[in-house]
Structures are given as structure tokens and as C-alpha cells.
Amino acid sequence: MASNDDRSPFEKHLPAQPLGDSAESDSDESEELEEHEQEEKETHDNPELPTFKSVASSLKAFNADGTVRTIIKARKSAFVNALIHLDGKRFDFTGRNYLLPLYDRNDKDILLKTGRQVEKSTFLANNLIVTSSVKSYNKALYVSPSHSQTRQFSNEKLRSAVDGSPIIKKYLQDHQVSAQVFEKGFTNGSYIFLRSAFRTADRARGISARNLCLDELQDFLISQIPVIKECTSHFPDATTFMSGTPKSFDNPIEVYWQESTQNEWLVPCKACGKWNFLDEKCIAPTILYAEDKLPPGPVCMKCGQPINPPDGRWVSMSPGKSIQGYRISQIMVPWISGLKEQWLKLLWKRDNYPFGQFANECLGLSYDSASKPITRDELIECCGDYSLWNPSGITPEIVQQAHRGPILTAGVDWGEGNDGSERGPSGKVRTASYTVLTIGTYINQKVWKTLLIKKYMGREVDPDFVVSDICRICQILGVKLVGVDWGHGWGVNNVMMRKLGPDRVVQYQHLPKLKKPLKWDPQGFRYHLSRNFIMSELFFDMKHKLIAFPKWAEFEPFAKDILAIYSEYAEYKREVRYDHRHSDPDDFFHSLLYAKLTSDIYLGKSRKYTRDVCDTPA
Ligand SMILES: [Zn+2]
Questions:
Q1: Are residues 167 and 98 in the same domain?
Q2: 165: pLDDT strictly greater than 80
Q3: Is 520 exposed, middle or buried (0-12, 13-18, 19+ CB in 10 A)?
Q4: Is the pLDDT of residue 438 over 60?
Q5: DSSP characters over 388-450
Q6: CA 417, CA 500: separation in Å to the nearest integer?
Q7: What is the CATH number of the domain that holds 419?
Q8: What's the gap in Å between 306 CA and the centre of ligand 1?
Q9: How far is the CA of 301 from the centre of ligand 1 (A)?
Q10: Which residues pair with 441 in a beta bridge?
């Protein structure tokens, strides 16, 4: 297992720190506790319903009003347009046509994955108010992860929309209905409850609701979400809205997004006909906007001509899923695209934010897809139509082939053989890791071919078995050199050196701060590797098809180890570093790295072709 953990042995005995700045979260915690007590005082789950008389009179008044009567029969968006007033004006869909299907399709499950400041909360508030107005005795529940977020939504979005909308104010509100922070009543008997899932989902669990809104989904614990969703189980016609801004990896919003239709607002180019997926590739260099050579707004990623977001349409990237997922980015909203000052602000963020943050907050893209060092398609490009050698069925033909061909090298990344679900003594989930053996060779001057991969899982994780099995395979095939990970305990490398001979085992140690890509340490009898640099080289090789993999159907389980790796820009060091999710092992990647690097070193490959391209660390 290659680890980027560079803490000293002493530090490793310190208790694991919770994520985030502890001082800050302490004060947040106490604020949250105060809010929690306040919420306890202000809420009761079975509020008094208005009398039938009041409901009947509100309905009568409602129907008596000509405007409203026709609107009730209309689409929900028309209803929102006519009833909801924001800042003294009717809610206007001009330039916001991407919102129409969200209101009008009546999907049961909607997920909004959005950048910041794209009116996500306004959409939720409008929806709650309109549904509560149209349906008598409707019950809706809004839940956010914290009291302060729920309070803010209640005061700033819900109340201002109710108070600012004359018809709702006149016919659906009176002094008898509850107008508290955590519950809003309507004279037609409808209620909107507002809760938080701070610490537990219990406050939300007691409520039965037809319409559920989960806001700021990225900050929920993923285990809370199904518990809260139970609230709607009594209603066959229940609807659920989930919304949030993508953040990091193990993020609920990403998990649910993968389960959704992944609708993207694709915008056509009138010049070349390309349908554009709105991301950073649709933003031209800042100078062109600053000098008014382009209007503020996105451009075609193919031909560079301006494109017009209202021309777009929703296209599902993953049809057939039960949740309708919609991504809304800042590029498509009319109060940013089309307004020079706002567009320049967006450009400033593009030019100054770390890319991950820009992707999350402005593009509404998960950090994940924004920062994969290599894509699945690029890996598929490296796949040939051959099969790997079967490690448990090495035939005489394979042995002959192995001995006749160019020299073979192997790479071993040691792992503990757990699947990421086990917990250590401290209760922390252990990183998933398996020992992986990779064997391959150069088939010409440039391309290194992967011939055998073995992942030690299940009954085979026993360290003694693993070492002797690796030695057995390397002996049979006549592997010249075995590159191994130095970092892992158990003295396995010494055992291997005894079995194979000390000259056949090459040890590698990843160091995060090494100035050179690679340096021999004669005392330690191992190579030091500049971890990020050496990993970048391997990604370069794969992107340029300098590595051959077997047919995709065979390779896919191992490809997952490569796709698990993501890159992160460390601002303070101004460098990219690689990491992987704790539940997703990356061991094959490292065993491949050791195997190929060992070939490179043995054959004296200069690697000038990558080092001219990659920035050599200063
Ligand atoms: Zn174009």
C-alpha cells in the first residue's frame, strides 16, 4: 500500500483529528446547540389545524378570484409566475426557461446539483408555497443539515416570498395561522414544517409529509437521508426534492447524482452546430471579455463563437433512472451570463480559485469529475484485444513465451487485504487495500505491455501465502526484477530478497517532498521517489497510450483502482497531489507503477519525453 502519510511514528499514535478546524467547529457546535434548544421550544409536530370554516372561506375567496381560478388549472410554473412575488415583482421566467420542466413535469424525485447563487433556495421556497396553496391540508417538510441554515431559509426565502406575494398574503394567510420560523401555516389547512438534521434525523422523523425538501444535501450524513425520506412513506403521491452544491468526494450529492438521470443543459452553437456541455471549456480567455471582443457569456467549446444559454435544452446523460437530476451552473443563469460585471466576477473566480472550488461553486460540478487525472475512455483507449496470463493456470506455453520475450519486470504493492469496511481500534474505517502483483514488459521502444495482474483477496490475503505465491510466479516466468513498495511493514521485502536473491528486488519509497523525480539511497538500499511526479509520469504514459492493457472486459476491475485516484490542487504548495477515497483501493496503480519503473530503470529509459512536458519540481 503506497501511503502519502508522512507523519512520524510518534505522530501516528496521536488520536485521529476530526476533519476540519477544531476551534472553529467548537464554536459552531455551541451555536448549533443553542439553536437546537430554541428549535425544541418553538416546534411541535401536531399543530392546531385551522377550522373548517376558515379553510372553506379561504377556498371560496380563492375561487372567487378570477385570476386564481384559471391559474389553478394551469401549470405550476404559470402559478408561480402569477402568485409569487419577489422584491415587489412577479417571478419572471425570462432567461430561466431551464426551470420550467422542474416545476411542470411533476417528477416524484428531483435532485438539483447546483453552483452557488443559482436561486436553488428560491426554487424550493416557490415550490413549497405553490404546492401548499393549491392543495388544501397539504403537509410539506423542509430539512437542512443545521438549524442556522433552516432558520435562514425560513426567514429569508419562505417568509419573504409569502409576505411579498399579495394574493397569498391576502387569501392564504391570517393572524390565526402559524407564522413561526419552524412552521408556516396556510388558511387552507396546509402546513410547511421546517427542521434540521443536526446530529440526528429524529426531529424530522416524527413528521409525516407529502412533499419533502432536503436542502444543502452535501452537508448531510449519508445515513440520515433514507431515515428522513421515510417521512413520505404514507403518501403514494409523495414528492422529494433534494438539492445542494457538490463539495468533495464522499459526498451524498454525488452518490445520489449517480443514481439520477443526470440531466445537463446542453446549449447549441448557431455557428457550428455543436451542443455544448456547460463547463470551464465554454469560458473564453478573460482578456477577450475585458476588451469587449466577446459579449459576457459562454462560448462554443468547438469554434469559440458566443452561445446563448436560453437556447439550450435538458438532455439526460443517464436515462432510465428514477431520480430526475438537474445540474444548474452559474454559466447558464441570466443574472450572471449576459451581465458584464457579474461575468467578470465569474472570470475572476475561474482565474483565482483552485479549480476544484471553481468547479463546485460556479459550475456545480463535483470535484470528482473535475479533477480525475485520467478518464475511463482514456483507459479503454489503452486496451488491446489480448488476454492476461492466468496466474493460477500458468501453462508451459506461457512459460515459453515469458522466457523467449524481452525481459519481464514485476511490481508489488503490499496491502492488508481488507475491503474498506473494517474499522481499526480507534473506530476509524481502515483504508481498503489489497496486495497486487503486476508483470509486464516493453514490446517496443515506447510501449510497456501488461501481461499478468493478480490481486490477493479472500482466502489468499495471508501474508506468508502472498509472498511465496509472488515468488513462485516470478520464478516460473523468469521475471528479471521485482519492484516493491518499501513502506509496508512485515519485513516481507527481506523474505523476498532471501527467496529471489537481493539483486532481483528493487525497493521504492514514496516521498512527498523529494526535489528530484528519483534518487537512490545507498544506506537504505532503496529508491526514493517524488510521489506526485512519478505518479504524473504514469498518468502521462496512459494518456499517450504508452501502456498496453488487455481487453477492457478483463481489465475493468483493475481499471477501477486507477479511476479511484483523484487529484487535488494544494494551493500553499502550488502543486497537484494525488489521493484516493478510503473505500476505493488504488493498489493496482502502484503495482503497475513499480513494475514499469523497474523496467525503465533497468533499461535506462531517459523518460525525457515526459520530463520535457511535466514541470520538473524546482
Ligand atoms: Zn461552435
A1: yes
A2: yes
A3: exposed
A4: yes
A5: ---TT---HHHHHHHHHSSPPEEEEE----B-S--B-TTSPBPPPB-EEEEEEEESSSS-EEE
A6: 23
A7: 3.30.420.240
A8: 8
A9: 7
A10: 449
Q: Are residues 457 and 564 in the same domain?
A: yes
User: From the CA of 272, how far away is ligand 1's center (Å)?
Assistant: 4
Least confident of 28-37, 228-237, 579-588: 28-37
Handedness of CA 604, 607, 612, 616 (dihedral sign): negative
- Say yes or no: 183 and 57 in one domain: yes
CA 311 to ligand 1 center in whole angstroms:
13
Q: Which domain range does residue 351 map to?
A: 264-316+330-370
pTM assigned to the model = 0.57
| Predicted pLDDT at 100 | 92
Same domain, residue pair 209 and 311: no
Ligand 1 centroid distance, CA of 331 (Å): 17
Tell me, in angstroms, the distance from the centre of ligand 1 to residue 268's CA: 8
Question: Residue 133 pLDDT > 80, yes or no?
Answer: yes
Between the CA of 50 and the centroid of ligand 1 the distance, in Å, is: 58
* Boundary (domain end) residue, out of 224, 242, 258: 258
CA of 532 to the centre of ligand 1 (A): 36
Residue whose cell numbers read 378570484: 65
- Among 165-174, 418-427, 485-494, 595-604, where is mean pLDDT lowest? 418-427
Return d(Cα 29, Cα 65) in angstroms, integer: 49
Query: What is the whole-number distance in angstroms between the Cα of residue 302 and the centre of ligand 1?
Result: 5
Q: Determine, yes or no, domain membership for 29.
A: no
Q: What angle, 0 to 180 degrees and rounded to 10, lies between the N-to-C axes of helices 66-73 and 52-64?
A: 90
Cα dihedral sign for 405, 407, 411, 412?
A: positive
What is the average pLDDT score of the chain? Answer: 82
The pLDDT tens digits for 60-117 are 545 444 344 444 456 888 888 888 888 888 888 989 999 999 998 889 999 999 999 9
How far is the CA of 609 from the CAs of 375, 541, 614, in angstroms?
A: 22, 10, 9
Q: Both 385 and 352 in a single domain?
A: no
How many Å lie between the centroid of ligand 1 and the Cα of residue 278? 13
Which CATH number is 142's domain given?
Answer: 3.40.50.300
Are 55 and 118 part of one and the same domain? yes
Return phi, psi of residue 389, to 5°.
-70, 135
In a domain, 561, yes or no: yes
Is the residue at 22 inside a domain?
Answer: no
Region for 90 from its dihedrals, namely left if φ exceeds 0, alpha if ψ lies in -120 to 50, beta otherwise: beta
**107: CA distance to ligand 1 center in Å?**
33
In a domain, 1, yes or no: no
Is 410 found in the same domain as 285? no
For the chain, what percent of residues have pLDDT higher than 70? 79
Q: How many domains does the chain have?
A: 3
Compute the half-sphere exposure of residue 63: CA atoms within 13 Å on the CB side of its CA.
Answer: 8
- Residue 336 Cα to ligand 1 midpoint, Å, equals 21
In this structure, are 406 and 545 located in the same domain? yes
The 10 Å Cβ neighbour count of residue 358 is: 21
Q: Is 493 helix (H, G, I), strand (E, B) or coil?
A: helix
The secondary structure element, H or E, covering residue 30 is helix 22-42
Question: What distance in angstroms lies between residue 356's CA and the mean position of ligand 1's atoms?
Answer: 26
Q: What is the pLDDT of residues 254-303, one digit of tens each?
A: 889 988 999 999 999 999 999 999 999 999 999 999 999 999 999 999 99
Looking at 258, 274, 296, the residue that finishes a domain is 258
Segments in 145-223 forming alpha helices (H)? 147-152, 160-164, 166-172, 202-205
CA 464 / ligand 1 centre spacing (Å):
60
